[in-house]
Write a structure and sequence with these properties.
By secondary structure, this protein is an alpha+beta fold. The protein is elongated, with a radius of gyration of 23 Å. It has 9 helices and 17 strands. It has 2 domains: about 230 residues, 2-Layer Sandwich (Murine Class I Major Histocompatibility Complex, H2-DB, Chain A, domain 1); about 90 residues, Sandwich (Immunoglobulin-like). The longest helix is centred in the middle third of the chain and has 29 residues. Helix 1 crosses helix 8. InterPro entries: Ig-like_dom (IPR007110), Ig-like_dom_sf (IPR036179), Ig-like_fold (IPR013783), Ig_C1-set (IPR003597), MHC_class-I_related (IPR050208), MHC_I-like_Ag-recog (IPR011161), MHC_I-like_Ag-recog_sf (IPR037055), MHC_I/II-like_Ag-recog (IPR011162). Belongs to the MHC class I family. It comes from Esox lucius. This is Ig-like domain-containing protein.
Length: about 350
């Protein structure tokens, strides 16, 4: 578990893109032999930001950004939930098929499908991609130029031949990756831009394990991410023995950060300490006085770890795949707002 969390912290889901480039990517991950992890997870990612999520434990597709929840109607989430349940069954079967092809039985196995598209809003250049992997290595990918499938391993040749003969299916992928997907990227970018105008004030807490341990000023739930957290001593900025934390994104698209102050009990009694939080776009300062009523530091750890574990099952395969694949991060086709790709996305290998 510790290794998985370190991988999440050290390696992002997707490579960074330029300011003019926008992308939408869908990732389906099926696993077997991993205790305490969902057997199937699918999620959508816009410009490196998760916008929705489903796993085999919850059996429900949920939005991960406020603007995403408002952009589509409630019927979309119901429809996507049913589609994801169907994909879950298909991808579990895909793992069994792949294990037979590779003459494997037990152990840990990961099957992934990653697809989507990129659009440069300055040059107009677009790119589509659809790639599948098994146990961290490329299994099969779609060539948009020839409308055929590339099989880097002998075990994938059966799949290649079957899908190459499905002309209608290949035309579907061409249309989706070059047109429909691009249209949705543009719509989602517009939805996201409208949400960037909003501001959300933070909730500020002072947390401490014991009277002699450092005091953590924790601010969460704020938007946008540009924030300044400082400590004051008797009304003056205080920079000694202060440790700045990272700004992390919450599941709902807001942010959290923390700043630690190392202060001796006698200094705390003889001076007035305050944590001051300033969020870009909000004129008000959010001030918390350091008193004797600080609470346990447990909630901070719980929030951060819970957020990391949500995507841990996906990272297990993606991290290995990214290292081995010459093509980079593979993309897949998930169901965007108003189209249903359940049949294609859940196709059997």
């Amino acid at each position: 578990m510790k290794v998985i969390i370190l991988l999440i912290l050290g390696i992002g889901l997707l490579p960074t893109v330029s300011a003019a480039s926008h992308s939408i990517r869908y990732v389906y991950t099926a696993t077997s032999g991993i205790p305490d992890f969902p057997e199937f997870v699918n999620l959508g990612i816009l410009d490196g930001m998760q916008i929705d999520y489903y796993d085999s434990n919850t059996k429900k597709v949920v939005p991960k950004q406020d603007w995403m929840a408002k952009a589509v109607g409630s019927d979309y989430w119901d429809r996507e939930t049913q589609n994801s349940i169907g994909r879950e069954k298909s991808f579990k079967a895909n793992i069994d098929t792949a294990k037979q092809r590779f003459n494997q039985t037990g152990g840990v196995h990961v099957a992934q499908m990653m697809f989507g598209c990129e659009w440069d809003d300055e040059t107009g250049v677009t790119r589509g991609f659809n790639q599948q992997g098994f146990d961290g290595e490329d299994f099969i990918s779609f060539d948009l130029k020839t409308l055929t499938w590339i099989a880097p391993k002998p075990q994938a040749v059966i799949t290649k031949n079957k899908w190459d003969n499905n002309k209608a299916g290949n035309e579907y992928w061409k249309n989706y990756l070059t047109q429909e997907c691009i249209d949705w990227v543009k719509k989602y970018v517009d939805y996201e831009k409208s949400s960037l105008m909003r501001t959300v004030p933070p909730t500020v807490s002072l947390l401490q394990k014991t009277p002699s341990s450092p005091v953590t000023c924790h601010a969460t739930g704020f938007y946008p991410s540009r924030v300044m957290v400082t400590w004051k001593k008797d009304g003056q900025d205080h920079h000694e023995d202060v440790e700045m934390g990272e700004t992390l994104q919450n599941d709902d698209g807001t942010f959290q950060t923390s700043v630690r102050l190392n202060v001796k009990p006698e200094e705390r009694k003889n001076n007035k300490y305050q944590c001051v939080v300033q969020v870009a776009g909000i004129d008000e300062d959010f001030i918390k006085d350091l008193t004797e009523d600080t609470t346990s530091i447990g909630p901070i750890i719980g929030v951060v770890v819970a957020g990391l574990l949500v995507i841990a099952a996906v990272i297990i395969g993606v991290v290995i795949w990214k290292k081995k694949s010459k093509r980079g991060f593979a993309q897949t086709n998930t169901s965007d707002t108003d189209f249903d790709n359940s049949e294609r996305a859940g196709q059997m290998i």
